[in-house]
User: Which sequence fits this backbone?
């Protein structure tokens, strides 16, 4: 959608985002906006950019375009570098503002410029959200005392040598400040194990590119955010990092690893595309009840996250676009996870793999969830408020308890156990497969309570709104009982007697819906007309009348 903020507010926000990919706290933002009035936005932008003129034109080009979200684009990067050489780095603030304003207007671009349309949508969403954060007086942080200053510190470049970056460094090019500093090592090999970086005060950021097969373990102190562009089979060691709060993989050319990560550090995947699996190995896991946090932001379809030795995994699908149908997409493989909690505002498409998983809780996820999961043990799955899709492989025979939540949800699962399914609000579709087959749970036909306990129970089914589709192991059709036959089934003295009468009424390879008590049941017969262990039973709890259009046999 078009940016929802204009004028000075938009311009100041864009400058913060283009140069630092950050949203200033309220006090800083208010001072920045106030500073524009006496000098004008052009002079303010020039002054804002003055803190970045120590960077080369090439580094500035990379920085600005990366924060605008339009990389990789080698031609554009070279053109901007050459333009900065032409106009002079003293004007980089003005150039940055112009770039932000131009991109903002390209949502509906056509022709050659249409390639920037998606980035424009994301950029406008980012500017709108950033303004909303900065204008909120509750968002406070490090006070700024220089009258207007952006408080963003400096941008420093690592070299091919053994760099020592700190507030006490002898050379200005290695001296950090009390504000938000940025340290860049965007060429593979510049960040090395020999480097030592002390970010001092503020929320500092390290952005680095690793070469293929490289293992890098720099010493980091007070560097709160690290963004890694990982070469194939590269490894970033965080064991010598203190104060690290966020560790991100931005892109990768193949599998990569983060090792020695503190459990208090949030690990994220951002703009990673088809980079391959990211394996996270955390430090200090005890084998008890360790918890780790993962964030997905603009994650694409070929991502995979492999989490080692963590029992409780929190995964946040971070909002990045207002575009319908756009989702963070990643496979989550967690060898020790017992509970996985999914939260966030953006739609999430994931396949969860984990033999120990017994809880998947997406109740706080407001974006739509698409979940594929194969059970290994009894599991409880809770959906969120969106139109969720669940594909559950129950070949292990473990019981599945699903609470789909609000929204128009779709659930697909087998008949391998006496599953418990609560549909919740919305117009839901429940696809149940494998009835009256070898993989289906055997019915207990010895007594009524046993029969009821071996049925699949569906709660919150609303005839005329929800839809149930049954697929049997062999060709099966709906039975068409008469009203008199249904009345006889209803009057049976027990559920076992009702189901037995329903089976003989329906006949072999037939599915019959009948009411008993306050509930509706659907019995799927195998190739024998009498009730037997190989038949399957579904209970629609509390459903007194089932419309014929509300259920089908596929």
Assistant:
């Amino acid at each position: 959608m078009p940016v929802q903020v204009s004028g000075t507010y938009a311009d100041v926000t864009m400058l913060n985002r283009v140069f630092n990919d950050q949203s200033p706290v309220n006090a800083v933002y208010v001072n920045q906006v106030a500073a524009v009035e006496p000098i004008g936005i052009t002079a303010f932008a020039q002054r804002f950019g003055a803190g970045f003129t120590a960077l080369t034109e090439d580094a500035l080009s990379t920085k600005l375009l990366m924060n605008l979200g339009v990389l990789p684009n080698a031609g554009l990067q070279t053109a901007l570098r050459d333009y900065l050489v032409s106009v002079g780095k003293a004007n980089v603030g003005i150039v940055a503002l112009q770039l932000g304003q131009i991109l903002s207007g390209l949502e509906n671009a056509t022709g050659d410029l249409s390639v920037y349309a998606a980035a424009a949508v994301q950029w406008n969403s980012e500017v709108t959200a950033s303004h909303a954060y900065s204008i909120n007086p509750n968002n406070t942080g490090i006070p700024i005392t220089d009258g207007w200053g952006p408080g963003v510190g400096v941008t420093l470049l690592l070299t091919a040598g053994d760099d020592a970056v700190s507030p006490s460094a002898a050379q200005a090019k290695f001296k950090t400040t009390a504000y938000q500093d940025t340290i860049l090592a965007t060429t593979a090999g510049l960040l090395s194990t020999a480097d030592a970086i002390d970010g001092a005060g503020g929320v500092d950021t390290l952005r680095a590119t690793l070469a293929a097969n490289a293992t890098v373990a720099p010493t980091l102190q007070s560097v709160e955010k690290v963004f890694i562009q990982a070469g194939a089979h590269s490894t970033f060691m965080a064991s010598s990092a203190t104060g690290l709060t966020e560790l991100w993989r931005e892109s990768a050319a193949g599998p990569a690893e983060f090792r020695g990560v503190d459990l208090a550090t949030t690990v994220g995947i951002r703009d990673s595309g088809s980079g391959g699996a990211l394996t996270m190995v955390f430090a200090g896991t005890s084998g008890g009840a360790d918890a780790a946090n993962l964030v997905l932001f603009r994650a694409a379809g070929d991502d995979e996250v492999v989490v080692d030795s963590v029992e409780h995994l929190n995964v946040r699908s971070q909002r990045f676009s207002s575009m319908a149908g756009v989702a963070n997409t990643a496979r989550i493989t967690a060898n020790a996870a017992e509970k996985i909690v999914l939260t966030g505002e953006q739609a999430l498409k994931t396949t969860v793999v984990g033999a120990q998983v017994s809880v998947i809780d997406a109740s706080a996820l407001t974006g739509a969830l698409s979940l594929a999961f194969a059970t290994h043990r009894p599991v409880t799955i809770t959906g969120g408020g969106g139109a969720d899709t669940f594909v559950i492989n129950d070949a292990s025979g473990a019981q599945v308890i699903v609470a789909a939540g609000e929204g128009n949800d779709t659930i697909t699962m087998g008949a391998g156990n006496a599953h418990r399914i609560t549909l919740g609000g919305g117009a839901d579709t429940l696809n149940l497969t494998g009835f009256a087959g070898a993989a289906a749970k055997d019915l207990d036909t010895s007594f009524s309570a046993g029969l009821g306990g071996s049925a699949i129970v569906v709660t919150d089914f609303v005839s005329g709104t929800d839809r149930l589709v049954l697929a049997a192991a062999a060709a099966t059709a709906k039975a068409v009982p008469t009203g008199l036959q249904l009345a006889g089934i209803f009057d049976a003295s027990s559920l076992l007697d009702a189901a037995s009468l329903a089976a003989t009424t329906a006949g072999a390879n037939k599915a019959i819906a009948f009411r008993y008590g306050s509930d509706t049941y659907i019995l799927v017969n195998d190739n024998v007309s009498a009730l037997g262990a190989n038949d399957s039973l579904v209970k629609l709890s509390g459903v007194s009348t089932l419309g014929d259009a509300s259920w089908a046999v596929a």
